[in-house]
Design goal:
Structural class: mainly beta
Largest sheet: 10 strands, antiparallel
CATH superfamily of the largest domain: Glucose Permease (Domain IIA)
Number of helices: 3
Distance between the termini: 30 Å
CATH architecture of the largest domain: Distorted Sandwich
Number of strands: 22
Helix content: 10-25%
Number of domains: 2
Radius of gyration: 21 Å
Order of helices and strands: EEEEEEEEEEHHEEEEEEEEEEEEH
Strand content: over 45%
């Protein structure tokens, strides 16, 4: 199909012996670094719809009259145009293919310089380094599960406090550039209740080296949220939580200089801005 420069791509396909109009669209049409968007299929009801984004296979799920999936641009992804191939498989075995060009736009993130004790920044103990490696592999394994479907309802914020450090902030620790900030830090006092922004399953509730007492929720369809540096964990692995459920309390466990909540979101493994997810879901009318 000839590539179009419009938001939605309309095309005519021969379905069940008749001509039917189908549509694939991105909402919003472009994707900032660290941002999220919906990819949506509307047309004759398929058996399933599958997309490939950043080498990840992503299934679209039925929402109302459409089939949709949320996709995101990792905070480390370079701006540019990226392909999004789509395959629509119908009950009779017919397959319809389409490809969109997703425009990822640059974001000017702020810079932050911090001076911390070297042992907090670059541990040298072989035992600690081994622990960090095990914990990273454990998290990566969890993020690989894209099963289930996302409940398309507005999210709430986990705490109602001022933001101290925003997503994407470029951090220079002890004069050395580090990975951009992969979440949002709230200036919450110790003991502040942390609430689940949306429903999901608790897949991790443990004490990790860098993030201290940490909770990870699987919201389905590859969307995960993480809560770090807690003083107390009030949920357990395998528990299904609803929006507004108490997950724990704000603290300064792990490698933290004081009480605060670090809130991060992963989408198909990509580090995306939690506030962008809140904004996208808040505009939903399923």
């Amino acid at each position: 199909m000839k590539k179009l420069t419009v938001l939605a791509v309309l095309f005519t396909a021969l379905l069940y012996g008749t001509s039917a109009i189908a549509e694939v669209r991105l909402t919003p049409s472009s994707l900032p670094v660290g941002g999220v968007t919906w990819v949506e299929w509307r047309g004759e009801r398929p058996a399933y719809v599958m997309a490939r984004w950043q080498d990840k296979v992503i299934y679209l799920h039925p929402v109302g009259q459409a089939w949709r999936a949320m996709i995101g641009a990792d905070v480390g992804l370079a701006p540019g145009s990226y392909p999004l191939p789509l395959s629509v498989v119908f009950p009779d075995g017919e397959i319809l293919t389409e490809s969109l060009a997703v425009r990822v736009t640059a974001v000017q993130f702020p810079e932050e310089r911090l001076t911390l004790p070297e042992k907090m920044v670059s541990p040298r103990s072989e035992e600690v380094i081994s622990r960090i490696s095990r914990e990273r592999r454990r998290l990566d394994k969890l993020y690989e599960d894209y099963g289930g479907s996302l409940e398309v309802l507005p999210w709430i914020l986990p705490v109602d406090d001022e933001i101290g450090s925003r997503f994407g902030r470029r951090r220079i620790l002890n004069g050395k550039p580090r990975s951009p900030h992969g979440g949002v830090d709230f200036r919450s006092g110790a003991g502040t209740s942390i609430l689940a922004p949306g429903s999901g399953e608790v897949v991790l509730a443990d004490d990790l080296f860098f993030t201290g007492r940490t909770v990870l929720i699987d919201h389905g369809a590859g969307l995960y949220s993480v809560y770090a540096h807690l003083s107390r964990i009030d949920c357990q692995v395998g528990e299904t939580v609803k929006r507004g459920a108490r997950l724990g309390a704000v603290g300064s466990s792990g490698r933290a200089t004081g009480p605060h909540l670090h809130w991060g979101v992963r989408l198909h493994g990509a580090r995306v801005d939690p506030l962008q997810v809140v904004n996208l879901l808040s505009g939903e009318k399923p």
